[in-house]
Amino acid sequence: MKKVIIAEKPSVAKNIADAYNIKIRKDGYFEGDDYLVTWAFGHLFQLFDAKDYDENMKGWRMEKFPFIPEEFKYKVKCDNVNRSVTDKGAEKQINIIKTLIERDDVDGVISATDQDREGELISLEVFMYLNQNKPIYRLLLNEWTPDEVKKGMNNLKENIEMKSLQDAGISRQWADWIIGINLTSVATLRYGGTGKERKMINIGRVLLPTLKIIYDRDKEIENFKASTYYKLLATFKTKNNEEFEGTYYNENNNEKFEDKKVVEELKKQLKDKQGEIVEKQVEKKREYAPLLFNLSNLQGYITSKYKGWTSDKVLKVAQSLYEKKFTTYPRTGSVALDESLKDKTRKVLETVKKGLPYEDQIKFVDNKRIFDNSKVESHSAITPTYIRPTGLSKDEEIVYNAIKNRFIMQFMPIAEFEETKLTVKVHDENFKGTFTAKGRVQRVEGWRVVEKIETKDTILPFVSEKEMVQVIDGKVNTVTKKPPKLHNEKTLLRVMETCGKSFKDEEDSPEMMQAILSGFSIGTPATRAETIKKLKDTGYIKSKGKSLTCTDLGRTLVEIFPVKELLDLEYTGKLEKTLSDIEKGKFKKDDFLAMIKDFTVEAVDDIKKDTAMLKNFKVALPEGTESVGKCPVCGNDIIEGEKGFGCTNWKNGCKYTIWKNDKFIEAMGKKVTKEMVELLLKNGKVGFRNLKSKKGTLFSAYLRYEKDEETGYYNWKMEFIN
User: SS3 for 497?
Assistant: First the structure.
């Protein structure tokens, strides 16, 4: 009997076939003695569109939302070009998979999709659609080398063991559909304009908080107030005629002076002075290699170092290297290796170090910076495999070498340098502080030779404590504090990864590792690149070289969008953390989806009531009509109609109207007149005398016409005049 193996892509299916020396390739699969190896093309299915559930959903109308189906259904995915027809390739491949599973000589199925939330979902969709009852097993691998394939096939899991991961995948998919379909639709209707000019306003659970990160940085730069301070520097000469420079620190150990005159005066006092070396500190320091790459760090490294690279491009190239068996699984948040991988890592190291000019310095070591289960979640950090690559493209070379070099650095000597600090006291009553000079000398290059990382060493002359030195020059440096820099993909990925939390600069600080591995983040390693790309494609952000900044559309959306939770990093981080908890079996899928449904219903209502965008629409006064005043909602003209006074911006959704037969006004014995409306619009209130109460008594009052935020309707508010 045989088993059907379903891989995520044809290239991966070939890797599996190669591992078992299966040479027979047929239409849509490989056939061996024990295995039929077939494949998907990523997702073969997609969720129903709203119109698939209800024909009435074809035309977007505000009153049709929120729309949440009682049961989510799947269909064969649509063609990428023509969304109205089914993807013929996907349909054909599904039928091939179905035929293979139903063969009489097949007694089981093995899912071999990627070992993550999305991979699990790809195979689950197939099994749900086919509804077959043969045993299903799961192959879990971190790389596609022949050794690992065979090892994994000998350690198959029952597919039922993957239920938590499946629940997390479905929860993510359904939640994004509920939020995306509903909020994108009502936001487009509310804010996207009308007719042919209407623009799609994309709303997403991960999209908006990422946009907010960029917006916040833009505003920070915009609101930045430049400040200037001054520093005093002195050049000293030793008895051997060697020179060095020191910075002056006052008695409060502060080198920054706000008053330039003070510093200039001090500079004058330096002339012909002598200084004494009152302290000399020499400290040997060690500098560890940067940690192994996770996906975000790899994307940040490549995009900041090479022109024309985006995080999306880095992911695609890293995925290609993975599928070609040259590197391990790329979509990981870990920067360490599982402790079970020590022997395998030793083998890989022996392979990749051969022929390197510093080969003799590369030695396998076992330490917690490299191997640490507490810093690994699902997948270890990205490393090379034991297969040496051939035929790499230029792009693949760049990414592969970055991964290989970072791997090799872990097994190189620790870099060592010597830091010298001289403290100089100028013996003059004007100088109550001291001058400080710092120097650095690299003693052991260590791992830095791998990428020829150079340091700009400042070498100080040899002096002893109590030695006298001569002041030969002084200068005043003007330092203008610069605004923060625009985000680039590297800095944006870091904020997304840590959900905006500030940690020490150390990339392996325990707090940061815990935050990343807990799932408290914006998106996942697999989706962040796609999110940044989508922000560009939707026109919410734009690139300036390597920098990212909001467009006018993106800025406006952040400022007016009423569902503030979707702009809140904390809220989005909690949602992502909950998905991670579902994956670990700590939270129930149904509870999560119930929360998402409640949130969406409220959010739709908030958008429906929102009028913030109406001010952006400027409507010309219709010919032959007279303006009664300006609309308090959107600033356009109010004009008189047959039944009332309404806003010219009504086509775009402005509902401000004062009806002529207003029952409230009539009940007090008055009528709505043009003069009354003019006064109301001009002053925000209008005064009446001789108003009649229900009991028939007369009184005076000011009337205001205000919106009830709960109902969205306008009501009269009364203020009595004594």
Answer: helix
CA–CA gap between residue 410 and residue 157 (Å, rounded): 33
pLDDT band at residue 242 using 50, 70 and 90 as cut-offs: very high
Residue type, 514: Q
506: pLDDT confidence band, cut at 50, 70 and 90?
A: very low
Give the total number of structural domains in the chain: 5
- pTM for this entry: 0.83
- Each as own residue / partner, the long-range contacts of residues 214-219 (CB below 8 Å, 24 or more positions apart, any chain) are 214/487, 214/492, 214/535, 214/541, 214/548, 214/549, 214/550, 214/554, 215/550, 215/554, 215/555, 215/558, 217/484, 217/486, 217/487, 218/486, 218/549, 218/550, 218/555
User: What CATH number is associated with residue 384?
Assistant: 1.10.290.10
- 679 and 632 in one domain? yes
Contact 14, 328 (CB under 8 A): no
**Is 146 found in the same domain as 8?**
yes
- Looking at residue 13, its pLDDT comes to 96
Residues 6+ apart with CB under 8 A from 400: 321, 326, 327, 384, 389, 392
Mean pLDDT along residues 205-210: 95
Range list of H helices, 484-525: 489-498, 510-518
CB-based burial of residue 655 (10 Å sphere; 0-12 exposed, 13-18 middle, 19+ buried)? middle
Last-in-domain residue among 578, 610, 642: 610
Domain limits for position 145: 2-155
Q: Flag whether pLDDT at 429 surpasses 90.
A: no
Question: How confident is the model over 317-342, as pLDDT tens digits?
Answer: 999 999 999 999 999 999 999 999 99
Longest distance between any two alpha carbons in the chain, whole Å? 108
Q: How far apart are CA 265 and CA 268, in angstroms?
A: 5
Q: Are residues 320 and 402 in the same domain?
A: yes
Angle at 438 between CA 433 and CA 440, to 5 degrees: 170
DSSP 3-state of 544? strand
511-530 confidence digits (pLDDT tens): 544 544 556 788 888 889 99
Domain CATH for 144 = 3.40.50.140
For residue 476, give the DSSP letter: E
